[in-house]
Amino acid sequence: MKEVIQRINKMEKILNDSEKSLNEFEKVLGDFEKNQEKFEELENYYFSEKWKEDKKYDEQGKVPKDIPSWVLSEDGIWNLSVRNKELGISLIKLGLRMIEKN
């Protein structure tokens, strides 16, 4: 009897924790999906002539030093883009694992 009660309590906790986790993930995923369009704009900028012009302008010292310009670095957008793609792959793998169960 004690073992049954412990198992029920354990499974109830897993159910509650899983529901909370899923609710939080749905919120974050929604925010992330909304940001993807803006992120695509950023990636398009990085591969455009405008980015090259802006970078040259910065290299000539024409951008004030108090203006954040990490966006003009070689690594800023690129590294974020790589992370974004890696996350996409992770989400695909997780999604497959989720639907392959049972």
Keywords:
single chain
Overview of this structure, please?
The protein has 102 residues and is mainly alpha-helical. The chain has one domain. It has helices spanning 2-46, 49-59, 76-100. The two termini are 28 Å apart. The model has no long low-confidence stretch (mean pLDDT 95).
Fold blueprint:
Layout: H1 2-46, H2 49-59, H3 76-100
Domains counted in the coordinates: how many?
1
Q: What is the ordering of alpha helices and beta strands?
A: HHH
What percentage of the residues does DSSP assign to strands (E)? under 5%
Task: Report the structural category.
Answer: mainly alpha
Distance N terminus to C terminus? Answer: 28 Å
Please, how many helices? 3
Would you tell me the overall average pLDDT? 95
| Principal-axis shape | elongated
Please state the CA-atom Rg, rounded to the nearest Å. Answer: 22 Å
The main β sheet shows up as: none
Question: Can you tell me the residue ranges where pLDDT is under 50 for at least 5 consecutive residues?
Answer: none
Helical residue percent band: over 70%
**How many strands appear in the DSSP assignment?**
0
